[in-house]
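hey m, so remember when u said the tokens were messed up on ur end? i reran from scratch. heres the input so u can diff it against urs
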Amino acid sequence: MPLIDAANIEFLQRVKAPITANKEGYVVIDADLFPMDNSKTKKEGVSRTYKQFDGYGAMAAYIGEEGWNIGCELREGSWHCQKEFNYTLERMMERAKSLTAQPLLMRLDSGHDAMENRFQIKEEGIDFIIKHGCVLKSCSTEFILKLNSNNRHLSYSASM
């Protein structure tokens, strides 16, 4: 897969694919795991997913308002999305930086709400938003934004 990923990034660079920032001036990187149904197959790596079917977990990342794919990795279906994610995160950030010099904003789901991710992303100079699963459920949007306004690294509650 590294060859395919490299070819994809090279293609985006060669055709000078537009990578548009959001209205706040950030080029957004969205990454999440989604289950792929492979029920009734005997393929390697197929196992029970969190959606209660047999399949794979695909970890995908997209960049810009256009949603260009900068990576999609198949994982065993039973793997938690955070398992070995630091390696995936490293590759995603490197690819994104090779495509744009604009400020980057990484958006991750609550499955990636881990301190190691926060440190790794911050170390790369990328801002981020990580959804909280339940820790701040009772907090208002205003409270969370005020709490995080000093460091520009926001987290938001699932209850918003």
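this time it looks ok to me. Residues 85-99 form the longest helix (15 residues). if urs says something different then somethings off w ur setup not the seq
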